[in-house]
Amino acid sequence: MTRRFGSLVAVDNLSFKVMEGEVFGLLGPNGAGKTTTIRMLTCLISPSEGSATVAGYDIKEDAQKIREIVGVLTENPSLYERLSAYENMDFFAEAYNLSDKQEKESRIKELLEFFELWKRRHDKVGKLSRGMKQKLAIARSLVHNPPMLFMDEPTTGLDPEAAKGIRDLIENLSRREKRTILLSTHRLEDAEKLCSRVMIVNKGRKVIVGTPEELRDRITAQPVLKITLKELNQRIIEAVKEVERVREISVNESTAELVVTADDAESATPEVVRNIVHAEGLILSVSILRPTLEDAYLKLVREEQT
Fold first, then answer.
1. pLDDT by residue (tens digit) across 84-97?
2. Which residues contact 208 (CB under 8 A, 6 or more apart)?
3. Which of 17, 28, 57, 186 is the most buried (most CB within 10 A)?
């Protein structure tokens, strides 16, 4: 798909697949084309060129059908703040043609209980916290039981506790209800914890698609060994240097920490620890530090920009 706004190419010949039942992450900096991509796939706007299918339906020929079967969480909750939580759910259920009263009421209660909002169902939305509004917005997007859910920056603006709560809910949705979820975010923590695969986009173009582990493997940074000691001295440093596989040592004297780069950090660990003990070093902790998804993301985006 390609989408232009005048002379601006917001999405540039973007192509990818999302498998049924997976949580697929759409990653990229602000202005990368993530929201525009979601707006095209949910038939809010049309592509300038190209097309796509969602749950087997063509976004050009079957736009109304796609709008009926997908759930959409926009970056802003899009709720009616003068209505209660229950009234919002009832309004959107009616909009999605849930005409059977018993079925509608049962579905609303099920979702509000699932999102721990049932006791607040009569509260006006304007009085709810940002985290509760986000929960309600997700519940609203699921009221018609859609097979696919599009979520645009679901944890933006939330405090750490509320953001974790939303991540837990998304994970539960994927596991319990087997939803196919396309998650657009610039928060790497969300993607690393939730997504089975991710696609990095930049300036409307695809940079790479893969699992978080595959993206980490694409960067050259190797795992390193981090050792915290009770005290650090030159004798200990020299003992670590004697290990054949050790290539580099970074010393932080204020925290008594060593960061050791070796040909194979895991295999080198026993010998490094043994040499430190022989040098009468008292080890407080030993850990292997691996590249994170954030490391991979930043490196791949920088390479795309150069």
1. 999 999 999 999 99
2. 199, 200, 215, 218, 300
3. 28
Task: Select from 74, 48, 73 the least CA-distant residue to 60.
Answer: 48
Closest CA to 9 of 59, 63, 47: 47
The type of residue at 187 is R
- Give the tens place of pLDDT for each residue, 129-177: 989 999 999 999 999 999 999 999 898 888 888 888 889 888 888 887 7
pTM of the model as a whole: 0.77
**Whether the Cβ atoms of residue 272 and residue 243 lie closer than 8 Å to each other:** yes
Residue 175, judged by CB atoms within 10 A of its CB (0-12, 13-18, 19+), counts as exposed
Give, for 289, the enclosing helix (H) or strand (E): strand 283-289
The SS3 call for residue 1 is coil
Among candidate residues 191, 179, 141, 148, the one with its CA nearest the CA of residue 53: 148
Task: Domains for the chain: give ranges and CATH numbers.
Answer: 3-218 (3.40.50.300), 224-290 (3.30.70.100)
